[in-house]
Amino acid sequence: MFFRYLLPSLFLATLLPAQVVPQFRSQEIDAEIGIGYGLALADVDGDSLKDILLADKDAIVWYQNPSWEKHVMAEKLTEKDHVCITARDIDGDGKAEVAVGAQWDPGDTETSGAVFYLQAPADRTQLWKPIQLTNEPTTHRMRWVRNRAGRYDLIVAPLHGRGNKKGEGAGVHILAYHKPEDVAQPWNTTLVYGSMHMTHNFEVIPSPPDEAEPLLLAGREGILRLTPGDAGWKEQWVTHHNTPELQGAGEVRWGAFAGGQPYIAAIEPMHGHQLVLYTPPPNGPKDGLWQRQVLDDTLVDGHALACYDYLGLNNRQIAVGWRAHHKIGKRVGVKLFYTTKEDGTGWEQFLLDDNTMACEDLVGTDLDGDRDTDLVAAGRSSKNIKIYWNLRQ
């Protein structure tokens, strides 16, 4: 069974309403990382199994499914920390292309940041060749995103605008990098959006294979949907944060109920204490602001979201992680929120990890081919990588 029982594991289950019984088994595959800044799940070696990739403090690594053997792709690309990673098969050969961000220094809005494309060797278990691209300061998050021509761009979001001080000043320049046929040649870039301040994370909205992928961008001013079109990216605000009560959004993920109605999950404010649900206005204009509902206000430095159908409910449930960074004595962990209703109500919660995962990032996929979505988490102070195997029957 893909060696998932070789390591000591914690059986996680609780008795819930008869129709829903979450059952997960945790497996720690690495207990000695530096800082688990960013995760990605993709097939690295072309065996049709999703591998786990990590942007660690001083190394870029991947864990090979199913043995979870650790392979180093690159080390110490910059003087300061690596901070993000994205991996996706963008050319159809069954093997992922990988890009990473580094030189992480949120206090330096002039010269920090770095963006690298990692060129794969013939043997992908060996070191990859880093190709440095141009960058805006404070490189923070990145994704491969399908454009209107059916190709993939590398979209990179810094934390701050160039020269910003405490979120004041220039807007953050979200750039799309256009991959050339020869990756060693200069990569052209275009501006996706440049008016939000202190953007923290963004989401690629799932779309049909023949369509371009829209984005959700979370930051100081709220949450914005960006849809590619003939005249650039169309802007549509999900929520505006322009009052003392609403102080920005950090993490953001797209979800949907069983009836097809979309929702958006967010952690507010940045590194905040609230898990928030946004649903479209029932009777308002199509482009109106979405309705806000707080699902949990007990997070301690919330920092990770992953929305998938873990429980086979034909909707997307919400996994949320918190890290309690610099919060001495506070517990850390991961929760799963789920509902069987289609109107955004009736949410229940299940404690998936209690104080063994200071969660910096969360991602989900089917790792073992049983058609259930498993969850992978990376820790900060806990310095670990864990798989939560979905044991749904």
Descriptive tags:
5-stranded antiparallel beta sheet, mainly beta, 29 strands, disordered N terminus, globular
Give me the secondary-structure topology.
Blueprint: E1 9-13, E2 23-30, E3 38-42, E4 51-55, E5 59-64, E6 69-75, E7 84-88, E8 97-102, E9 114-119, E10 129-133, E11 139-146, E12 152-158, E13 174-178, E14 188-193, E15 201-204, E16 215-219, E17 222-229, E18 232-240, E19 252-256, E20 262-268, E21 274-279, E22 291-296, E23 302-308, E24 317-322, E25 333-338, E26 348-354, E27 359-365, E28 374-379, E29 385-390
Antiparallel strand pairs: 1-2, 2-29, 3-4, 4-5, 5-6, 7-8, 8-9, 9-10, 11-12, 12-13, 13-14, 15-16, 16-17, 17-18, 19-20, 20-21, 21-22, 23-24, 24-25, 25-26, 27-28, 28-29
Brief account:
By secondary structure, the chain is mainly beta. It is 0% helix and 46% strand.
Describe the structure.
The protein has no helices and 29 strands. With 393 residues, it is mainly beta. The chain is 0% helix and 46% strand. Residues 1-18 have low confidence and may be disordered. The protein starts with 8 loop residues before the first strand and ends with a strand. It has strands spanning 9-13, 23-30, 38-42, 51-55, 59-64, 69-75, 84-88, 97-102, 114-119, 129-133, 139-146, 152-158, 174-178, 188-193, 201-204, 215-219, 222-229, 232-240, 252-256, 262-268, 274-279, 291-296, 302-308, 317-322, 333-338, 348-354, 359-365, 374-379, 385-390. A five-stranded antiparallel beta sheet has the order 1-2-29-28-27, with no helix packed on it. It is globular.
